[in-house]
Design a protein that fits this description.
single chain; 69 residues; alpha+beta; two-stranded antiparallel sheet; globular
C-alpha cells in the first residue's frame, strides 16, 4: 500500500541521510515497485502533466504523468 504522506516523510528523512541521494532513490524505487498502489492513492491520470506533490527548500517531489491512447 502506498501512502503519500508516508512517502513524503520517507523522502524527507532520506535526503539529509546521503548527499548522493542514494537513500532517496531507494525510497522512490520501493514505491515504484507497486505502481498500482500509487495509482490507487493518487488516482488514474486523465491528462499528461507534472504536478508538485511536495516542495521545500531542500526537496521537491513531482508526479509526472503520461496518458496513453
Amino acid at each position: 500500500m502506498f501512502d503519500l504522506d508516508r512517502f513524503i516523510e520517507d523522502c524527507r528523512a532520506a535526503v539529509p541521510e546521503d548527499p548522493s541521494y542514494k537513500a532517496a532513490h531507494e525510497v522512490v524505487a520501493r514505491a515504484n515497485a507497486n505502481p498500482g498502489a500509487i495509482l490507487a492513492e493518487l488516482g488514474e491520470p486523465t491528462r499528461a502533466g507534472v504536478t508538485a506533490l511536495y516542495k521545500s527548500d531542500t526537496l521537491t517531489i513531482l508526479n509526472v504523468a503520461g496518458v496513453s491512447g
